[in-house]
Structures are given as C-alpha cells and as structure tokens.
Design a protein that fits this description.
Layout lengths: L1 E3 L1 H5 L5 E10 L8 E11 L3 E15 L6 E16 L6 H9 L3 E2 L4 E3 L1 H11 L39 H10 L1
Parallel strand pairs: 5-6
Antiparallel strand pairs: 1-7, 2-3, 3-4, 4-5
Length: 173
C-alpha cells in the first residue's frame, strides 16, 4: 500500500491530504489475509509526513476455547511520522528508520502496509473467543462442545488427574 507524497513534501508545512484505504494485508502467520478499511490524514511536517488515521481491520483469529477460526473486526488507530529520505543525513539514522519502516523512500513513496500490520496485530485480542459463552473442548475426550455433547463421562473417580478432578477439589475445599 504505497502512496506518492512528492507533491505534499514539496508543499508548505501543515499541508494535508486525505486518503481512503480499502485493502487486504498479507498475514505473516498461517492465518488468512487481513482486510483493512478506513481513512488516513497525511500532513506535511518539517522532516517528512505525519500519518494519522482511524481504520477497521477484519482479523481472522483462532478461538482459545474451541480452536475454530472466526473473523472479528478490531479498531486500528494509526499515528506515525515518516521521515523523508532527503532529510536524513546519517547512515545510522537511515538504517534505523528503514528498520522501523518509517522512511519515505528516495522516490517519495510512503509504504503504510508494515505499520498497519503492526497496529492491527497490537489491537488484536490476547485471548480471542469466537462467541460469548463458548464451551470449548471437552477436557477429557477433546470433543467440540459447540457442535455436540461429548459421549465421555464428565465425572472421574476421586483422585483422578483430569480437569474434572481439579474442579471437584476446588468445589469441596
């Protein structure tokens, strides 16, 4: 997702451009790509451009209870300053900005994809659940309790080692 900011960089400080975004970001892991949509404001600064935006990312997540994949929309607020390659004097600063993906390249192209991936990842839930009250998997046989009740016995002999035995110990204590 590249934007040419040459005209903005040649304009006065404080000049602003609005851009709508509707794109698909490739996922780094084995999950499907992320759809992202919203708008960003790109403002000229003394060394480059400031990008601010409010977007929505449709993430494909895996439920921590039943291990099924589901889609959830998360808000993404972006605010980053990208420095123009023409404003960078030292090699060390250029390398640091390139490593952080905060550099407007020498062709005046701004790449928002790495930052949007990072912000979407940071806003994803730590323990995603497909639906409130998801019963998850049976601790004994591993059956998906969203689809059907399991056929195993849910009570174990006293002193058992499963989750049921642990719950029973806490109930009687």
């Amino acid at each position: 997702m590249h934007f040419n900011v040459a005209q903005l960089l040649s304009g006065p400080m404080g000049a602003v451009r609005q851009r709508r975004i509707s794109s698909v970001l490739d996922s780094a892991d084995r999950l499907p790509p992320t759809r992202i949509a919203g708008s960003v404001e790109i403002m000229r600064t003394d060394r480059g451009v400031l990008v601010r935006g409010t977007l929505s990312a449709a993430l494909t997540l895996e439920c921590v209870r039943c291990l099924e994949q589901f889609e959830e929309s998360v808000p993404v607020s972006l605010e980053e300053e990208y420095i123009s390659a023409h404003q960078v004097s030292g090699r060390a600063e250029r390398l640091a900005l390139q490593a952080d993906n905060l550099l407007v390249d020498s062709n005046n192209l701004l790449d928002l994809e790495p930052a949007l991936k990072e912000y979407a990842s940071l806003n994803s839930p730590l323990k995603p659940v497909c639906k409130p009250g998801c019963p998850g998997l049976c601790p004994t046989c591993g059956a998906d309790l969203n689809r059907a009740a399991c056929l195993c016995t849910t009570t174990e002999a006293p002193g058992g080692t499963g989750l049921s035995a642990l719950l029973e110990k806490y109930r009687t204590a």
